[in-house]
Write a sequence for this structure.
């Protein structure tokens, strides 16, 4: 076989292989279709050259071959120019040369191509001489000069990238491209310009060498894939251990982090990947070769290194996909989670200890950092604020907004989670105060700063429900005080009754002896009236002491309240109004009717006094169960233990209200905020209610009004 046939045939075979490979992998869209056109044009030239030289004496075959050969040559240059410009722009080394409008080159070559196929000035291009070099005319040299210059421009463009580009992968790609363009260009120029006649055109041999070089670069250097860095340069510096395994569980690649843990002896390319995981983890398994890789989130697994070191890794598996879309293997990424798991374990241990302390203390605990984000909140806090099934917000501002409707009163009109609300100063010291809720509960709030050696800065909030303790303490103090006063009042009342009985008895005896003395009789009447008034006061003292005796009978409190209210309204000033909100069918209670009438009248008179000269309304409410609390009450006091079932009466006014200091003394004998000589009525009412085992409560807001309520328990044998 002649040398030219070997070179041309080799060129055709390699160009077909390269073109097929490129088309199969399909280069990125910026390089399509200029890259396949360049290889196709070279293939067209090689086929035409083979035909023209295989049948040199057959004019038709030779013309067809020459037509194909020169058509290929005229198409190669524009295709390489477009490809070179796009490749340089994508890779980042484009220059002024790449801005040349390729349409001028295509236009010139198109005109020359038309001249070739129409051949009006055949001798102006070339004259073919079989088995020797053709002779070339001036138009041929114009064609060669334009295309040679364009190809030299692409060589300069890629040479600039090979010398100046910082990325080593791009520099390597540029060197291959320079060689692929220069080899056939030099051989073609040598054939055309050599003074010695060559036996055959070596341009096809140049295409064969270029194709071999590009095939190597495509397979080994990822040419035309637009990867700016190679896989090793990308993964070698990764902190995670990365192992790439073939579909048949053979190791293809392992980065230094994987070699450090497993050891390089276990990561030789081509060796089995099974010894890496099966004996070192009881939970992680590689996918089977026949299985498609499942899409799964990274999961934690404990692995033991060949040296016996145990580490927790978050293992993520992902498919390595070929350009054809088939799975070529599996990429296993192992992210070291040992330190993170240890930190989580330590945090969980400390959080568990904190939770145990918080639950055992019974206090509601909340810890916030210095920016207000909630770091910890125990279950007691959620229960205390009635948030058992609701997730807590992440910031105290959001939590305060959530609790806003439950807060009745704070020490100052500030935020709940604000240190200045519970004390003066910058809030660095431990502070505390009470927070009253709308349901009447009292929470003792304490706050103090927290600073740890680990750099945590924040504040702790402790909430304690002191409603029962405060009520019991207050009741105990009040009972002790009133018990002493009651004993004293009872003793004085009985002594005064004995003296008053003597005074009244002697006055009656004197009256009998002074029948005709009118002046003396009038004096005796005044004496008897004063003695009777004093006797009424002693009965009030006995009632205050809770020692009054009365006859229990079935009483309809609703009817009794209306009778007393309508009777009292007659004596009230015109600017005082009375409203009734009475239950239509209250059960009867066993009580002393005169005594209960006395209590209701005293409450109405106290409400009228609270209004003073200010126009207002007294509202009387009755019902079954327990009365509603006064919303946002600033001061309150309670006496007695509320019964499970009872009848309540509530007297509300919109008067001046009672402050927190005075409200604890409203039932003291002769205590009043008005004028002297009043105040025994409420004290006696308290004794009467205690005699009936009734509970009672006073609530008030300064400037808004007060609310007096009492609950009389239902007897088991009470009628309807």
């Amino acid at each position: 076989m002649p040398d030219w046939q070997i070179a041309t045939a080799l060129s055709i075979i390699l160009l077909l292989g390269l073109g097929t490979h490129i088309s199969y992998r399909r280069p990125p869209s910026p390089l399509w279709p200029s890259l396949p056109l360049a290889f196709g044009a070279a293939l067209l030239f090689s086929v035409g050259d083979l035909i023209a030289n295989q049948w040199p004496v057959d004019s038709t075959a030779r013309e067809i071959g020459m037509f194909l050969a020169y058509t290929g040559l005229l198409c190669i240059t524009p295709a390489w120019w477009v490809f070179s410009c796009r490749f340089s722009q994508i890779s980042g080394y484009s220059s002024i040369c790449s801005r040349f409008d390729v349409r001028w080159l295509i236009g010139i070559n198109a005109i020359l191509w038309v001249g070739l196929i129409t051949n009006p000035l055949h001798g102006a291009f070339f004259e073919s001489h079989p088995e020797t070099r053709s002779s070339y005319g001036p138009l041929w040299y114009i064609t060669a000069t334009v295309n040679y210059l364009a190809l030299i421009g692409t060589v300069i463009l890629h040479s600039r990238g090979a010398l100046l580009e910082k990325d080593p992968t791009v520099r390597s790609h540029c060197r291959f491209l320079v060689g692929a363009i220069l080899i056939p260009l030099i051989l073609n120029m040598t054939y055309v310009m050599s003074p010695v006649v060559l036996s055959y055109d070596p341009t096809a041999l140049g295409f064969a060498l270029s194709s071999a070089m590009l095939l190597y670069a495509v397979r080994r250097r990822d040419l035309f894939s637009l990867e700016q860095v190679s896989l090793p340069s990308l993964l070698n510096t990764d902190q995670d251990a990365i192992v790439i395994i073939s579909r048949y569980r053979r190791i293809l690649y392992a980065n230094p982090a994987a070699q450090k843990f497993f050891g390089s002896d276990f990561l030789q390319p081509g060796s089995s990947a099974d010894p890496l995981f099966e004996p070192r983890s009881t939970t992680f398994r590689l996918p089977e070769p026949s299985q498609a890789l499942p899409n799964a989130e990274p999961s934690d697994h404990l692995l033991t290194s060949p040296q016996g070191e145990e580490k927790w890794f978050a293992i993520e598996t992902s498919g390595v996909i070929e350009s054809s879309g088939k799975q070529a293997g599996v990429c296993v990424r192992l992210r070291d989670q040992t330190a993170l798991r240890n930190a989580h374990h330590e945090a969980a241990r400390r959080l568990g200890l904190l939770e145990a302390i918080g639950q055992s203390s019974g206090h509601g605990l909340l810890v916030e950092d210095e920016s207000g984000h909630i770091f910890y909140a125990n279950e007691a806090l959620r229960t205390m604020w009635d948030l058992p099934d609701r997730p807590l917000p992440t910031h105290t501002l959001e939590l305060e907004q959530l609790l806003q409707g439950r807060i009745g009163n704070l020490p100052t009109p500030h935020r709940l989670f604000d240190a200045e609300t519970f004390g003066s100063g910058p809030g660095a010291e431990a502070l505390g105060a009470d927070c009253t809720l709308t349901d009447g509960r009292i929470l003792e709030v304490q706050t103090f700063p927290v600073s740890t050696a680990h750099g945590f800065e924040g504040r702790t909030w402790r909430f304690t429900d002191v409603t029962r303790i405060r009520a019991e303490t207050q009741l105990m103090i009040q009972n002790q005080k009133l018990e002493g006063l009651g004993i004293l009042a009872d003793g004085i009342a009985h002594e005064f009754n004995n003296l008053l009985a003597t005074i009244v008895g002697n006055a009656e005896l004197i009256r009998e002896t002074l029948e005709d003395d009118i002046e003396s009789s009038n004096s005796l009447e005044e004496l008897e009236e004063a003695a009777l008034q004093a006797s009424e006061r002693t009965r009030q003292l006995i009632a205050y002491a809770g020692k009054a005796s009365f006859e229990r009978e079935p009483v309809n409190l609703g009817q009794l309240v209306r009778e007393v209210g309508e009777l009292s309204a007659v004596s009230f000033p015109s600017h005082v109004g009375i409203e009734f909100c009475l239950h239509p069918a209250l059960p009867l209670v066993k009580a002393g009717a005169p005594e209960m009438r006395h209590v209701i009248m005293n409450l109405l008179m106290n409400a009228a006094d609270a209004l003073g000269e200010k126009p207002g309304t007294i509202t009387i409410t009755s019902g079954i169960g327990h009365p509603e609390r006064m919303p946002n009450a600033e001061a309150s006091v309670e006496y007695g233990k509320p019964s499970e079932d009872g009848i309540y009466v509530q007297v509300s006014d919109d008067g001046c209200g009672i402050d927190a200091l005075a409200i604890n003394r409203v039932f003291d004998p002769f205590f009043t905020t008005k004028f002297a000589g009043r105040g025994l009525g409420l004290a006696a009412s308290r004794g009467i209610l205690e005699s009936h085992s009734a509970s009672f409560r006073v609530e008030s807001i300064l400037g808004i009004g007060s609310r007096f309520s009492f609950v009389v328990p239902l007897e088991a044998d009470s009628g309807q």
About this structure: Residues 343 and 349 are 10 Å apart (CA to CA). The longest strand covers residues 310-321. Residues 716-720 have pLDDT under 50 and may be disordered.
